């Protein structure tokens, strides 16, 4: 679960990391502006990056100017979601920007500390085009970071004198925060060296393990509770969440109606491999009810961007006849016009096929654009046909 910048900085402050004093303002009013010292920087709060390039980072030299700039940011759409809060902090003069993060390296099953002397908005480009500028240090799960290790890392960032001591403290604090709160990611970008010789956290990113939050009641005291990032969900994702359906909107035009999460991911890869664009990720879970299956179809067919549906059901714990009944009932009741190309195999397949064939005979017009293949049709061919059907609908 990702935190907003202002939430991450509250967590940082508990570990003694040098964050600036700031206030959070929403549409309820601007009274908090009386508490800040000008000039200030105004930052729209969003989980999606690229805020500076999207006009969500503004500067103001007075209260009136700050209020005007805040009004221009609140409500602005970024990454498909409206900005509901801004963080207002004192503006500082930056001499140089550094990068610092701790993540879980899932390939090596170890913690990974990453640093760079080239922090700031283009760190992703630096990591891609000049990977030698991103230094990496692995630590075993559960291992402590000793002061000498942090000091050596800070020295590698080009810090010396009082800044070396300050950098050592920041690195130790960030690592201990990462371990202490069961984080997936803890990042400072940039870690700024100011013209008056201070080391300051100018932006903070924290991704928590939601399943471990019960171990940290202090987070609840800070107003941070498990939320599945509801504020950043699309309308369909909110509906799916309420129905208990794992679902993520993508930007394509082929609805994916799979059996399980693993095959759902594989289907997305195959659709892209053959030149199509998936519209979603979805997981039905084991032995889904017909009500759940119909709700899953509704999410896809109600999406105006979806031109065709790819579906597949391998009956194991679940039954093909239940799946077939759900498809038939949804089609008869809702009369969708979009083509659906699917494949059914496994447990109760023969019974499922009889249900589909009977429905086709009774409602030929409704099932004119619906095809359900058997196990002998390669899944790749089903996907290719779905892509052709989507293109034909444009």
Q: Quick recap of the structure?
A:
With 394 residues, the protein is of the alpha+beta class. It has helices at 5-14, 63-73, 123-129, 147-156, 162-180, 217-221, 235-242, 261-273, 290-301, 320-334, 349-362, 379-393; strands at 23-26, 40-44, 57-60, 77-78, 81-82, 85-90, 94-105, 110-116, 134-139, 183-194, 199-201, 204-208, 247-249, 254-257, 280-282, 308-315, 340-346, 370-373. It has twelve helices and 18 strands.
Strand elements, count = 18
Run of helices and strands: HEEEHEEEEEHEHHEEEHHEEHEHEHEHEH
Strand content: 15-25%
**Roughly how many Å apart are the termini?**
37 Å
| Shape call | elongated
Weakly predicted, low-confidence segments: none
Instruction: Identify the CATH architecture of the largest domain.
Output: 3-Layer(aba) Sandwich
What is the CATH homologous superfamily assignment of the largest domain?
Answer: Succinyl-CoA synthetase domains
CATH class of the largest domain: Alpha Beta
How does this structure look, described?
The chain has helices at 5-14, 63-73, 123-129, 147-156, 162-180, 217-221, 235-242, 261-273, 290-301, 320-334, 349-362, 379-393, and strands spanning 23-26, 40-44, 57-60, 77-78, 81-82, 85-90, 94-105, 110-116, 134-139, 183-194, 199-201, 204-208, 247-249, 254-257, 280-282, 308-315, 340-346, 370-373. The strands form 5 sheets. Strands 7, 8, 9, 10, 11 and 12 form a 6-stranded antiparallel sheet that branches. Helix 4 (147-156) packs across helix 5 (162-180) and helix 9 (290-301) crosses helix 10 (320-334). By secondary structure, it is α+β, with helices and mostly antiparallel strands. The model has no long low-confidence stretch (mean pLDDT 90). Helix 11 (349-362) links the parallel strand 17 and strand 18 (370-373). It folds into 3 domains: 21-90, ATP-grasp fold, A domain (Dna Ligase, domain 1), CATH 3.30.1490.20; 94-221, ATP-grasp fold, B domain (D-amino Acid Aminotransferase, Chain A, domain 1, 2-Layer Sandwich), CATH 3.30.470; 233-393, Succinyl-CoA synthetase domains (Rossmann fold).
